[in-house]
């Protein structure tokens, strides 16, 4: 065991994990207002990454610039997901769950049709920039940017939820839909907005992943899983818990790949996830 | 009146079975192969429906049981010379034990349906990594199962017709088991649990025991059908048998047919597997992914139009038509 690379492994895990937390956050937002989960969220991440690729090949846009386009597009996709899938199924979680499995097939194979089955890479001007801390730690700049953005988003979310009318009506819908409607909250509108927000978070996660990850149509399920685990660990709708649990999963992944060889190393995040659930079945944090 | 209805029903089922059997015998080899595949998926869907439909616990971890059923007997046969029947039994026992452990972890606390789906999906992914990383189970490359002339004692078959008969019999047994559970005390308990866990617990149903028992049965059955599938495929590919995609497909077949009914998984897999194969046959070469994209689109549409699945959709249409007729009759002035 080479302990000299431990600080770097930990930093890598924290930074990658913050992106996983974002995917979990997009699911948590969706769950908090509708009680339903779409398993196609990871495929939406793939979709946003491929959109970044197209903007790069077509218009030479750097990934961090193209977010200005992918963010509204994915927000629209999130709203469409609510309007055309979740609303007609009246939020029946089991039906939505099943329909989202069909959606997974649809998105994955449309991506396969358009972009083919080979791996793609989108370079960014910061892709190969590194920042050194002391002697031992060298970090990729894209990962640091990702971590910073996640932190900033968490801050914005906190302020929105706690101090704005918009955040209050969102919490009201989460706690009791009927009472919220009684006191004049437009439940459907709140849901539509939160789904759009969930799509926007996906767009950000996609952009943050692109510079350090190769693209492939079949990667969607992996993103769904790394988002689901933090979601479950945080008890489904504790947003800060989700971001923190994302870091735990990212850490488990980084440590597993660096220090443990073979199948056990690759599956360390899943093992940690299951162990936590055995000992703390209600998740790591108490929900609100 | 009811018995007359039941007699008609039994005769209808018997006629369908005979028709399927006869049609299967005379189909050309390519289509018969599709029919065998459809039968295997019907078996897998029926097995999944026991826990996913009857008990309403959407397990996405069944790919692990299917993979054990496919890979373990193959490994035992090729590496230790263990008879395939014995291997099938060992795999079924291993799957049942694993099913008990997974369901115990997930059901110890009552955490809701979605929660179970998410946890089992993590198990499915974990199982895939472990299987691909285990050399004894074929690793990432899987096994070739050579098959000589038909030999029942070694569970070897030569022609597609023979596989058709085997798969058909296995599916009949699976449907029989499923129908029996559906009408048994356990079946009523499971539906009570699915519809309202609090009420079920209040009338004294042991939630944990019921769920674990049905999970064990479902896991063992999935494993056995997985073994048959492995024998039929010849090439036991972990990317097919152990990938979470196989269970996602099975959940979709069941959902489209009618989740939680005896005949739903049969109708769903029976329609969608041939459809998928035909789409692949016609479009697969034109543009990779097109057939699966169409497939996914159709699935979403069917769930939106008939949320309860085709069997329930057809039943409600029939009811509506009957209502129409009785209404028109009552409209006639006396």
List keywords for this structure.
heterodimer, A: 288 residues, mainly alpha, two-stranded antiparallel sheet, B: 334 residues, two-stranded antiparallel ribbon, 14 helices
Describe the structure.
The complex is a heterodimer of chains A (288) and B (334). Chain A has one domain (18-234). In chain A, 73% of the residues lie in helices and 3% in strands. Chain A is built from twelve helices and two strands. A two-stranded antiparallel ribbon of chain A has the order 1-2. The longest helix of chain A is centred in the N-terminal third of the chain and has 29 residues, at 6-34. Chain B has one domain (2-243). A two-stranded antiparallel sheet of chain B has the order 1-2. Chains A and B meet through helix 4, helix 9, helix 11 and helix 12 of A and helix 5, helix 11 and helix 13 of B.
Quick summary of this structure?
The complex is a heterodimer of chains A (288) and B (334). Chain A has helices at residues 6-34, 41-59, 63-86, 93-115, 141-163, 165-175, 177-182, 187-209, 220-233, 239-259, 262-266, 268-279; strands at residues 130-133, 137-140.
Secondary structure topology:
The complex is a heterodimer of chains A (288) and B (334).
Chain A: H1 6-34, H2 41-59, H3 63-86, H4 93-115, E1 130-133, E2 137-140, H5 141-163, H6 165-175, H7 177-182, H8 187-209, H9 220-233, H10 239-259, H11 262-266, H12 268-279
Antiparallel strand pairs in A: 1-2
Chain B: H1 2-26, H2 29-54, H3 62-80, H4 84-107, H5 113-133, E1 143-144, H6 160-183, H7 185-195, H8 197-202, H9 207-233, E2 235-236, H10 238-241, H11 244-257, H12 264-283, H13 290-305, H14 310-331
Antiparallel strand pairs in B: 1-2
Helix pairs in contact in B: 2-6, 2-9, 2-11, 2-12, 3-4, 3-5, 3-9, 4-9, 6-7, 6-9, 7-9, 11-12, 12-13
């Amino acid at each position: 065991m080479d302990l000299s690379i431990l600080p770097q492994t930990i930093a890598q895990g924290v930074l990658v994990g913050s992106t996983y937390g974002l995917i979990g956050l997009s699911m948590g937002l969706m769950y908090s207002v509708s009680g339903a989960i779409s398993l196609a969220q990871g495929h939406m991440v793939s979709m946003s990454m491929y959109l970044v690729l197209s903007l790069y090949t077509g218009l030479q846009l750097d990934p961090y610039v193209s977010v200005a386009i992918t963010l509204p597009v994915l927000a629209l996709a999130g709203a469409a997901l609510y309007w055309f899938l979740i609303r007609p199924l009246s939020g029946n979680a089991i039906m939505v769950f099943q329909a989202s499995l069909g959606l997974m097939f649809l998105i994955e194979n449309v991506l396969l049709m358009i972009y083919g089955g080979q791996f793609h890479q989108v370079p960014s001007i910061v892709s190969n920039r590194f920042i050194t801390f002391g002697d031992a730690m060298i970090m990729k700049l894209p990962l640091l940017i990702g971590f910073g953005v996640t932190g900033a988003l968490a801050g914005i979310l906190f302020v929105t939820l706690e101090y704005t009318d918009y955040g209050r009506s969102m919490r009201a819908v989460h706690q009791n839909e009927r009472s919220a409607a009684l006191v004049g909250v437009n439940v459907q509108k709140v849901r539509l907005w939160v789904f759009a927000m969930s799509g926007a978070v996906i767009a950000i996660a996609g952009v943050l992943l692109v510079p350090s990850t190769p693209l492939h149509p079949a990667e969607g399920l992996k993103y769904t899983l790394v988002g689901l685990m933090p979601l479950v660990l945080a008890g489904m709708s504790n947003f800060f818990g989700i971001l923190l649990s994302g870091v735990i999963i990212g850490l488990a992944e980084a440590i597993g790949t660096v220090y443990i060889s073979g199948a056990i190393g690759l599956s360390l995040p899943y093992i940690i996830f299951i162990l936590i659930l055995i000992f703390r079945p209600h998740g790591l944090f108490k929900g609100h | 009146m009811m018995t007359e209805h039941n007699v008609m029903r039994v005769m209808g089922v018997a006629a369908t079975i005979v028709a399927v059997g006869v049609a299967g015998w005379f189909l050309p080899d390519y289509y018969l192969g599709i029919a065998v595949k459809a039968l295997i998926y019907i078996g897998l869907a029926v097995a999944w429906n026991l826990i996913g439909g009857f008990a309403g616990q959407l397990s996405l971890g069944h790919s692990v049981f299917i993979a054990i059923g496919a890979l373990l007997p193959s490994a035992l046969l090729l590496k230790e010379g263990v008879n395939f029947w014995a291997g099938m039994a060992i795999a079924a026992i291993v799957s049942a034990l694993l099913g008990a452990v997974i369901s115990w972890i997930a059901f110890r606390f009552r955490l809701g349906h979605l929660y179970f789906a998410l946890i089992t999906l993590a198990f499915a992914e974990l199982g895939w990594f472990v299987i691909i990383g285990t050399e004894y189970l074929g690793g990432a490359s899987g096994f070739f199962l050579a098959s000589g002339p038909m030999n029942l004692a070694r569970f070897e078959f030569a022609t597609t017709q023979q596989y058709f008969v085997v798969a058909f019999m296995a599916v009949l047994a699976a449907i029989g088991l499923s129908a029996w559970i559906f009408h048994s005390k356990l079946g009523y308990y499971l539906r009570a649990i699915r519809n309202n866990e609090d009420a079920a617990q209040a009338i004294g149903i042991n939630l944990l025991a019921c769920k674990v028992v049905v999970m064990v049965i479902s896991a063992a059955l999935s494993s056995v059908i997985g073994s048959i599938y492995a024998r039929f495929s010849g090439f036991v590919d972990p990317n097919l048998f152990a990938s979470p995609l196989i269970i996602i497909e099975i959940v979709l077949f069941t959902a489209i047919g009618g989740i939680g009914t005896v005949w739903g998984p049969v109708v769903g897999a029976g329609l969608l597997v041939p459809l998928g194969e035909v789409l692949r046959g016609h479009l697969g070469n034109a543009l990779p992914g097109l057939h699966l994209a169409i497939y996914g689109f159709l699935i979403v549409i069917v769930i939106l139009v008939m949320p309860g699945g085709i069997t329930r959709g057809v039943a409600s249409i029939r009811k509506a038509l009957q209502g129409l007729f009785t209404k028109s009759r009552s409209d006639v002035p006396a």
